[in-house]
TrEMBL record:
Keyword Iron attached: no
EC number(s) from the headed UniProt entry: 3.6.1.13
Keywords: Hydrolase, Magnesium, Metal-binding
Protein name, entry field: ADP-ribose pyrophosphatase
Amino acid sequence: MTPLFFYGTLCHLPLLEVVLGRPVEAASLVPATLSGHAVYWADGHSFPIVQAAPSQEAHGLLLADLTNDEVARLSFYEDGFGYDLKPVSVNTPDGPRIAQVYFPHDGLWQPGAPWSLNDWVRDWGFMTVETAKDFMRQCGQTAAERAQAIWPFLLARGWARQMAQTPAAATLRSDAGRDAVEIRERPGGFEGFFALRSFDVRFRRFDRTMSAWMPREVFVAFDAALVLPYDPQADTVLLIEQMRNGPVFRGDPHPWVLEPVAGLVDAGEDPELCARREAREEADITLGHVEKMCQVYAAPGYTTEYFHCFVGLADLDRASGQIGGLDDEHEDIRSHIIGFDHAMALVDSGEINAGPLVMMLLWLARHHDRLRAMPRQAQPTGPVG
């Protein structure tokens, strides 16, 4: 098999090993250059492209002794992004060698700044490796183009796992680490926008013995930012209403649910910025002062879903209940601006039956007097559309 020349993210050994599905000895990677070419960031994206560039050299690594199955795995990873193998001659310390390189389709991506592997590793390395683990699960099961279509969502999951590396305090609860849990993955489950993983698990019990192996499943979701818009001067909150599939499949005769403004945190996005973005998209308001409420797992027994919850001060006098949401996400969202006391009455009556909104309103009740003393600090205020 002709050696392959890597010039971008696959020069990062942890990513290369995930894509190949095996460990790689660093000594088997030979430094090489591709004359007459240069590597750039794909403009607006987190990966590189290589293009012809007279009098320049693209630096990378050469890997030989690849099996047909390994090349197929590499091609699955690259093909979905519009890259094809082409033969080239590269320069190595032992002289020129014929190799193959993944080139992007002509005109598919535009070049940005010169590529920096170190910058990519710092900003995108961890989450891309985590994302590739999910992506490569689909190799041999899903067409590369279809798998690539959900790459941004897989990357958001990788970002969630990166944010999870900064855990909450462990003062009352056990400070036992991940090494106290053993996982054996089983075949089956589902891979898509969401994932369902089947596995066996055992863990170190409080008496220091290991539990028995137990078959389990987990629903792999995303981190989400939730925000409760609050007007301290008018003492009003903004709630949104939309149809939800969970109540439909539970058999609830009233599947329209009152909720806080919320949305999935995109890869690399700060959760507070996500909350501000969702307030504009779903309710057509711009938030001023935003304050963290809490960060919580939605249902830690069976899902990875994690909520970053905020209160956002806004001038709701100039906002109006309206239909919002993004058409391309098939959102049909109605806003309600109601008094704080009315909202608490809806909690008591059970009409507000979405757990996050109940939790956030109870948090607001605890901090109500303090927030009422604050100015709105909304700059600008009111509708933005």
